[in-house]
Amino acid sequence: MSLHGSDRRDTSSSGGNGTVAAANLRLRLNPNKEHRPDGYEDMQLDFSPNIFSSLERYLPPSMLNVSRDDKAKFMREILLKYLPVGERSRSQKHREYRQKIIDNYQPLHRELYYVNPATFFVPSFRRAINDNTEQSFRSIMSEPSPGIFVFDIFQTDFCELLLSEIENFEKWVTETKFRIMRPNTMNKYGAVLDDFGLEKMLDKLMEGFIRPLSRVLFAEVGGATLDSHHGFVVEYGKDRDVDLGFHVDDSEVTLNVCLGKQFSGGELFFRGIRCEKHVNTGTHSEEIFDYSHVPGRAVLHRGRHRHGARATTSGNRVNLLLWCRSSVFREMKRYQKDFSSWCGECSREKKERQRSTIAATKLELFRREGESTA
Ligand SMILES: [Zn+2]
């Protein structure tokens, strides 16, 4: 057994506040293969729990009998010093990234950071949400193609304020040379609003305003249980992204609102709702729908509604996207195969199965009738 260094405990640095000091404790050079490490899955740690379990075999013998918390603390200090940044769990890195922005970025319009229905929304939208009935929702929206709902949502002043806040982020990013993460793999421009301090506001927007609509309009994809979101803006036009390929969103329900400004082109094209298995199947003529953006106006659709954006041919277009997700729906989906309540292709397959069953039954009846009259 090789012991690297001494396992002597320095009482002056290990007592007192109950922390285990790393000063005079060194890791073993070779792992103790007989030792059964603890599990760390249930702890809030900034590195993968497996790393802690593996590293535990290298702990100095005197440390093997201390509490799991103390072991974790000791190992964390080591990991923070030596593990490449890339090994850290993504969520911790993202927390740090977000904190760095929030600590340094000065918001321009603080009134945007809390939902204020009176200044955010147009009166018709506020009334419909207050009434909270399917009839009130339907009265303010059109459904130009099945599953695509269009309605006025934001006041012009709110759109302008949000646009100027976004310009302010961009200015700050350029000036400080801060390397920001873009909203998704498809957009080179745009910003994640959640990273700039708007997470709480967008959460309230989802809970108080989008979930009530989704509960009624998209019940079969977890509309009533939306519990997390990804909120971002995309920017199209000259010196920005041009268009956006055909895709589905990583959401159950997507809210897409045009904020402005002056532009032409940039139409959204929709091509039917599909489950994972059917995402690349062909489009049927009744599924084809194109939509032209109007500032302040929202399009609400299922995340699995296949779509893309045509080129913005002149001017600049900025859209707010809120991808709303339901963890309950995602968990349930793992045990299901038939999504005929929302997938266009599953639904067609199911109808086809029913048709052939009926046809087979009819054939059987004819045959029996033939036999009995013969
Ligand atoms: Zn399907």
Automatic annotation (TrEMBL):
Transmembrane segments: none annotated. Residues 227-326 form the Fe2OG dioxygenase domain. Keywords: Dioxygenase, Iron, Metal-binding, Oxidoreductase, Vitamin C. Its cofactor is L-ascorbate. GO terms for molecular function: dioxygenase activity; iron ion binding; L-ascorbic acid binding; oxidoreductase activity, acting on paired donors, with incorporation or reduction of molecular oxygen. InterPro entries: Oxoglu/Fe-dep_dioxygenase_dom, Pro_4_hyd_alph. Gene3D superfamilies: q2cbj1_9rhob like domain (2.60.120.620). It holds the Pfam family OGFOD2-like. The keyword Glycosyltransferase does not apply. Residues 1-42 are annotated as: Disordered. It comes from the Eukaryota. Residues 1-11 have a biased composition (Basic and acidic residues). This is Fe2OG dioxygenase domain-containing protein.
